[in-house]
Design a protein that fits this description.
Strand content: under 5%
Distance between the termini: 48 Å
Helix content: 55-70%
Oligomer: single chain
Mean pLDDT: 81
């Protein structure tokens, strides 16, 4: 569903970076110190996949009791609280400089406030399964943006082919040959726009917040704090104070923020540090699968054949857009150790 990674492999960047799930918040320059490991990384990888995969189900349940802006405000508030505790424990300091905070405000809008709100509004009218699949299109949007944003990552034929394949998958999911019959176009458009917001934000992040001297955790926590403030200003303008706090929607919002937007960030930090960004980013491809299974098995959402087939095509295209050419082999060393 949208987590920081080190600069060497920032999430959901233009064309060669992984997709941020809906809980992913911010950029980084260096990963925070890795805590001692008590669980095998594969267990933590699986837990992260489940947390982010279930984010779309939690959004759906949350909107059954609260307005979309309230769901977004809640998830940002609880996510910020988790990272604030982590910053205190690790004695992290907030970033300095007005310019850095201004850039963080823009990043918070495109990586948190806007996509989180759009997904919440989208799930008022579309299944959580469809929202999860739409989220998987982020690398496709990133690849498309890299063609016009003068990214340092030059598109290759394979990655351009992945872009085309991915959008064929999107049309398959949406049932384009049926004229999009039975599909809420407004909700679907909002879910796709949310997935587009992530690479827009990461392009901005990579160009403005690299090399600030602040840690990943500090930037992420500060960005979520600003995102919370943004929603705190907007929410009262469009919603009224809740008259009740229904149990399941409330628990869903708490879990969405504390687990999917706070704890998951810390888990991913450890994975990137321990096994590297390439392996850690593979969690991206499990998210729509888990989101679809959760929507069908838990919420009883209907699933036609074109949804899983199109989702697989989308993931195949996304994988191709993330591929890089293999480095050329070095010639064998000759006499004296010289090539």
């Amino acid at each position: 569903m949208t987590v920081a990674r080190p600069k060497a492999a920032p999430p959901a960047g233009p064309s060669a970076t992984p997709v941020p799930p809906p809980s992913v918040p911010s950029p980084a320059t260096q990963p925070p110190p890795a805590p001692s490991r008590t669980l095998d990384w594969r267990i933590r990888f699986g837990a992260l996949s489940l947390i982010w995969g279930f984010s779309f189900l939690l959004i759906k349940v949350g909107t059954e009791g609260y307005a979309p802006f309230q769901v977004t405000l809640g998830r940002l508030l609880f996510g910020t609280a988790v990272l604030a505790v982590a910053m205190v424990v690790r004695r992290e300091r907030l970033p300095r400089g007005v310019r850095t905070w201004a850039h963080l405000a823009v990043a918070a809008f495109f990586l948190n406030a806007l996509p989180f709100s759009l997904f919440a509004y989208a799930e008022l009218t579309v299944p959580s399964t469809l929202a999860g699949i739409c989220n998987a299109t982020s690398p496709l949007w990133g690849m498309a943006l890299s063609l016009v944003a003068l990214s340092e990552d030059r598109p290759t034929r394979r990655r351009v082919a992945g872009l085309g394949l991915g959008f064929i998958g999107v049309l398959t999911v949406l049932g384009a040959w049926q004229g999009f019959a039975g599909l809420d176009l407004g909700g679907t458009a909002m879910a796709l726009l949310a997935s587009l917001s992530y690479p827009v934000g990461w392009i901005y992040v990579r160009r403005t917040l690299a090399g600030t001297g602040s840690s990943t955790l500090s930037l992420t926590g500060s960005q979520l704090l600003i995102g919370t403030a943004q929603l705190a200003l907007v929410t009262p303008l469009f919603t009224s104070v809740p008259q009740s706090f229904p149990l399941l929607p409330t628990l869903a919002v708490v879990a969405l923020g504390a687990l999917g937007t706070g704890f998951a960030v810390l888990v991913q930090y450890g994975l990137v540090t321990e096994v590297g960004p390439t392996t850690a980013q593979m969690v991206t491809y499990f998210i729509p699968v888990i989101a679809t299974a959760a929507g069908v098995l838990v919420l009883g959402e209907r699933l036609s054949w074109n949804t899983p087939v199109g989702a697989l095509v989308v993931l195949a295209g996304a994988a191709l857009t993330q591929s890089r050419p293999r480095p050329p082999r070095r010639p064998a060393a000759g006499p004296g150790g010289q090539p």
